Amino acid sequence: MKVLIVEDQQRLAQLLKQGLTERSYTVACARTCREARDALCETAYDLIILDLGLPDGDGLDLLREWRKSGFKEPVLILSARDAVQDRVKGLDLGADDYLSKPFSFEELLARVRSQLRRQSEVKETVLEYRGIKLDLLSHTAHLSGQPVELTRREFALLEIFMQNPGRILTRTLISEKIWASHYDVDTNLLDVYMSRLRAKLEKSQEKPLFKTVRGVGYQLL
Ligand code: CA
What we know:
Structural class: alpha/beta
Bound molecules: calcium ion
Low-confidence stretches: none
CATH class of the largest domain: Alpha Beta
Strand order of the largest sheet: 2-1-3-6-7
Distance between the termini: 28 Å
Strand content: 15-25%
Oligomer: single chain
Order of helices and strands: EHEHEEEHEHEHEEEEHEHHEE
CATH architecture of the largest domain: 3-Layer(aba) Sandwich
Number of helices: 8
């Protein structure tokens, strides 16, 4: 389970990181909005713990931005702002939970567990987008009702896009998910797989399904 902590107070961030790491979570930290944006572009997280007062902006703006661009990862706000209207605003903007500082670490842990549990319960098993239907249980794919034969890797690749429609996925993120270690992977391999997916799924050039974002990655349109 990967957790991203967005928190500018170094000491608190360290304590959280240490506590979560001891309980077998993989933890990354970001101190600013900018670092948080970069971190989220690079890696997929299972949960984000978000402070609101950050040196280069407001965590609520980050949250708004993420939800607008389709990020579905659960966000737990951890903030000193504890007025009811702050909580309401955070939750309305798409936060999944709100814990005010000061807090007890045990309570934070319980809330983290609860978020992760909920997330695994609601994980959809059939993904549908632009006429593509992907059944994650039976591992079958359909395009406009017609079955499409996909290899295991092609299926995994398509699944990442279907989980994140409209979002630009970096080559690093995709490779990390598909191949255990992206360092071993010849990056051309990803392009080979992408062209195979395109050949199987893009019915006409006027309506492309994928966009190549030069130097960055790919996007399911
Ligand atoms: Ca802060």
